[in-house]
Amino acid sequence: MHRNTLYRIAALLFSLLLFSFPSFSQGNLDSLLDYCRDIGTFSRLFPQEKVYLHLDNTGYFKGEKIWFKAYVVRTDGKREDLSRTLYVELLDPVGEVFEKQKLRIENGECHGDFSLSGRPPGFWEIRAYTRYSLNWDGAACFSRVV
Asked: In what order do the strands lie in the sheet with 49-55?
C-alpha cells in the first residue's frame, strides 16, 4: 500500500475511535498512537510483496494460449524488488499442478504464456507467487480460474 493510503486509514480509524468513545482519555490516545507507530514500523521492517497477473482474456478455447504479464509490488511503495523469481502454475480442473514456470522478475515485471493445446476442457486455475510472498496470507499470492 502507498504511504498516503496508510495514513488515511490510520486517520479514519483514529476518527472512528475518537467519536465512538466520548470519554476518550489521554492515556488511551497515547496507547493508540503508539500502536499506529508500531504498525508503521513493522510495515517498514517487513514489507509485503504482492503479485498480480494481467491476462489477455477472461476465457479461452482449446488450443489457445494464455498470455500474461506479471506485476510484483511492495506494500511499502519502494521500487526495488524483494524477490528475483516468480513462480506461475497452471492447475488442471482436478486441482493438480499441470505446468509450472519460473520467471525472472526485472523492475517488478515479467511475462509469459501457457498453451492450452492438447489440454482437456474445463476450468483451469492460474496461480502466481514469490517465495517471499508465501510468508504472508493468501492475499499476497495471485489466483484466477479461467
From this structure: 49-55, 65-74, 109-115
Q: What phi and psi values does residue 129 have, to the nearest 5 degrees?
A: -165, 160
Give every strand in the sheet of 125-129, ordered side by side. Answer: 97-104, 85-91, 125-129, 142-145
C-alpha cell at 109: 515485471
H helices of 21-129, in order, are 26-45
- Contact between 129 and 105 under an 8 Å Cβ cutoff? The reply is no
Which amino acid would we find at residue 32? L
Gyration radius of the chain's alpha carbons: 21
CA distances from 36 to 25, 33, 48, 55, 61 (A): 17, 5, 17, 37, 49
pLDDT digits over 35-94, tens only?
778 777 777 777 788 899 999 998 888 889 999 999 998 877 776 777 899 999 999 888
Three-state SS for 78?
Answer: coil
Task: Give the pLDDT confidence score for residue 85 in this predicted structure.
Answer: 94
Distance from the first to the final alpha carbon of the chain: 27
